[in-house]
## 1
Amino acid sequence: MPLSLKMFSIMKKIFHCISILLCCFNAFANTQVDSLSSFAKIYGIVRYYSPNPHTIDWSESDWFKVSYNYVKEYRNSGYDNKVLTDFLSVFAPNATLTSSPDPTRRYCCASSPLYYNEHNGSGNLTYHISEDEVYRPYYCELVEINDNKERGPRIDQNYSYSISNNLYLNIPIAEKKECFCEDKINNAKSIAEKVWSSMLNRETDMRLKLIDMFRDVDYRITDMIARWNIIQHFYLYHNEDEMQWEDSLDTMIKYAIDFPDEERVRAVCFNYYDLVRKVMNPVKDSHLIVNGSMDMGGDVKGAYLGRYYSPLETQIINDKVIIKSVDPDAQSNLIGGSKIVSLNGEDITKVIDNNLCYVNSSNATYAKVDALQYALSSADATKSIAVTTLAPDGLVESDTLYLRRGRPYRDLSQSNSSYWISDSIAYFNPSVMRDSYQAFTEMMKRDNEFSAIIFDIREYPAYDFIDVLGHLTDSDMLMDNIHTPISYLPNRGEVYFKTQKQYIRSKDMTIDKQCVFLSDYTSMSYAETVLMLVAEYDLGTIIGTPSCGTNGDATRFDLPAFGFTMTALKATNIDGTRHHGVGVIPDVLVDMDACDSVYTNQDYILESAISYIKENNE
């Protein structure tokens, strides 16, 4: 008995010690995340809004390397705040860190011009209009404060931003050029480039170089900080998406720290790609695509993590996944019209739900389709997918499908014609050609054969289709619903918009026929511009389901690996009402969930349009 009591006492002390160690570990982990979160916020505000004349032409890559170096230094120092003040002394020399907000500006010399960073949109896009002319729609420029400028930061104060519970960054958004030291800045960049090169040059084999990069915790933390700041300062629809993006930062940093990186295997690349897509999930923007490219410069330039797809074309109807077609080259026993029951032995509904965390769509249907496509593909060429289906005749079929590189499979044999005419109805599809206006002109030579036209605006029309709309009205149409964001304060403070105005001119010959436009979740971006004009100027009847709800040009952010695109411009409907996440609402809604049979490849929206035309012509 005494021995048992003694053992009990020893065990109690051991458990007590373990508890203390766990508490210490958790406290240290929390300190890591909190400290890195503080650096992330300081870095983002300074990187985008400190008006540094010597960094105005820096690329995303330049800033990434500098951030990587400071992250490494900060962690190696045991999170010594001196690293933060050193960063500020170089890139925002008159900024301060205090325990409470301090908006007092220590000086303001009126005799010297003050400048601030003004962002015209965001991201990196370049259009080569001609051999000598380059157009960059989104850019940041140093703007001098003057009395004629309607908007801009105040020159007589610092702007205070909460960095953590007891830390504030106080920074002059308007600053003199001469307060920045070019030598210090160039030196910081030079050191960062050497540190970055040192990390990449540990290995000569390109594949191992990439694997080691993803296994580097400092790289992962830097990558998450870069992504978080881009969305924090420039994404346009925080409120519409009901995002709590500020709360995502700690989670993203924790994911970066906890990412399993013990094994030096190729799967590290796939796993990190999945993690990136997962952390971007709160952004409900169908333009947001995380690509598989890795472009780090030097001997790692142009590497690409490909995507491999199944030989199936699918659709979701009435919450059931139906095979539309099967690539004949796959030599599969699965057939079009069958319902997919499971993938790799798991119920298909559960598969889709589990993959929704990797998609960014602003449209619920689009999200499910994207999640399904993600489940039917892989970044690993060696993967295969076991599919079980239920055929229209009730027969259960199973097959193992091997993935192939390229694009998701589509059967184009039934949809590659620009138009057809049948039963006094013309069908015109501007999404299968580049020169839709010429095809439309050819179709109209047979105008005596039809009294109604169905325009299929599902997917992405040819750009010149906008000229076709000019034949459907006798007056010019104003399109003023695309707005370029102009920002000069962090965290989307005081963003204002420049509205683009475009006139769609009416054509000499106005077509007086019944016009119907087809819409569904694939009608996105430019397709929605077409539908907006149809709705606003009553050019015809829209039939189908709501469009995607994602319009405004997409912009690009080039990170060392897995860069991404997202919406750059704010779009409303032409009448000013909300478009993001809502889309263009059809005049005649087709209830896809009420379809009598899902075991067919019928085009319910097209059939509904034909029925509508015939009923209205009786």
## 2
Amino acid sequence: MREQVAKQKVAGQEGNVEKELNREIGGELDAKAQALLEEKEAESRMRTYNGLFGKILVVLLCVWAVFQLYFTTIGAISAINLRAFHCIFLLLFTFLLFPTYKKEKRVRSLPPVWDIICIFLSAGTFGYLILNYTRIAQSGGRVDTFELGIAAVALLMVFEAARRASGNLAILALIFLGYNWFGEYLPGLLGHNGFTLKRVLITQFWGTEGVLGTGIGVSATYIFLFVLFGAFLKHSGFSKFINDFSLTLVGQTSGGPAKVAVVASALLGMINGSAIANVATTGTITIPLMKRTGYKKEFAGAVEAVASTGGQFCPPIMGAVGFVMAEFLNISYTKVMLAAIVPAFLYYLGLLFSVHFEAKRLGLSGLSKENIPDAMLVLKEQGHLVIPLFSLIGLMFAGFTPLYSAVISIFATIVASWLRKETRMGLQKIIDATVEGAKSAISVGVCCVIIGIIIGTVTLTSMGLNMGYLILSVVDNDNIYFTGLLVMIMSTILGMGVPGVAAYVIVQAVAVPVLINAGCLPITSHMFCLIYACLSNITPPVAMSAYVAAGIAGSDQTKTGLWAVRLGLIGFIIPFFFLDNPVLLIGVDTTANLATTLWAVFTASLGTVALVSALEGWLIHKDNILERIILLAAAPAMMYPGILTDIAGIVCLVGVTIYQFICHRREKNPTLPA
């Protein structure tokens, strides 16, 4: 009892949370988070240049941003030339900013000679492609020995850049590239007749299915613009607004600090699209606060990891991956965004109830009222910063393209910041946002380039279709759920250690055809694979987000990863319930009316609460074993769209709730009659 009171007292005396944490332990944690980021994410290991070259680099990054903004909106350029120029910029900045090896000196005045050579080779090979692509395409793809050499050098530069910027993904791409040759020695459906070096080089470099394929196409358009948009939002003060607004929403409730972490990380992760970076930034504030409130360190780290990961498939922005999906499906982004609403809602509903029930179980309170910002004051002083989001969503609903909407919203961010002196973006802030946005786009862009080799191999060898036939040959044709289980495992493995957008691009190339062959709708198949590709961030043994959060929390990595899987369990389950019956994906099931959809969402929400209660062992008070079993059985019954299962699940949940309510009243007032 004394420990519980002490915990509540600590929670009530947090004061100004962010300042207090920064003053007492923030510096140490920031350094720790940076070290973890450098270990897990290559982007954080970038070089910095002093003197004149540092200023030249800033100018080059700004030139790149202007180039991308111009040619993805009003400028006229062929798709292949835009992708080739984008590759040149990506490779240029990769060799300038990413060290050759991890322990290399980071602060320099000039780049090493080797990197200058790599830059010239990259610019020369892709520049040659820009000048000669039309001629070669008109000749039916005929190339001479010199042009095959150009392709080989370009691929070598791409692999070197990917080794620096993405690490494991370069190894995976090398395995896929090798499959073009050793695949002929494999038996059964995974084997093929083999391909010559010339055929592979033409496909991977001179064709539109390799490094200049869909992956780099979405990087040169959607990804770059939305990463840049996220950087401008950050520099306008939007991140502070999200933190303050989250405090006003849930700061005073039981386990308030954990709920603040959930809400803030969801909103910020939705914008920046990087779960690992989100954990390292918001986690340095939210994880220590959760620990000081009374949560276990493994639990605190897992909450931040799960919340940051879900932002990648959370509307309305979805970390730019939604726009990529719309491009693959050739449908409007609005349809993708609507389809993602319910899975994202259930994912975060489950996480919020997890931290709530855990707080109730531990007897934790929220922050005291005097330490919560005034909601009206927050909206008055910072509410104008949401104008760019309304601009983005409004323009897309009005029928404008996502690219046009993103560019207008970037300028809307600058204009909105001028509405108050405290948030005004001057020239220096605009330059800083541009530079940060361009830098943030490099690693994801390089991943998209190297993914082109994977997609090129899948296309050339028909690996995607063969994989589908292989899976379908070992399962019953009517057993779509077992097929989904195998695809889930494949998607999670392929997505491990890869940024969200890049993970989805890989997975959709290999796994989506499997589900479509099994009878699933295309958008359902894509959404299924997207969610599992993102959840690979919290799936051991390569749970990158969970491991970075564990480092900040000072907890055991394995335990934190397992806690993350448990807290995010609803995300692993829900895709199976819309796989065969997509009523939970708004706008996908054309036979379902509004009432049917709302009822399915309502019962799925109850099922989510029941599942979380069974896992946490708490509803109104502590669950006994029988109650947990009943709730565990009721959860899938309510998640599955069907009247009989819904009624059975609701009866179980209501029965347990009424029983616990009566027992709770008797505990508080023993004089009540039995």
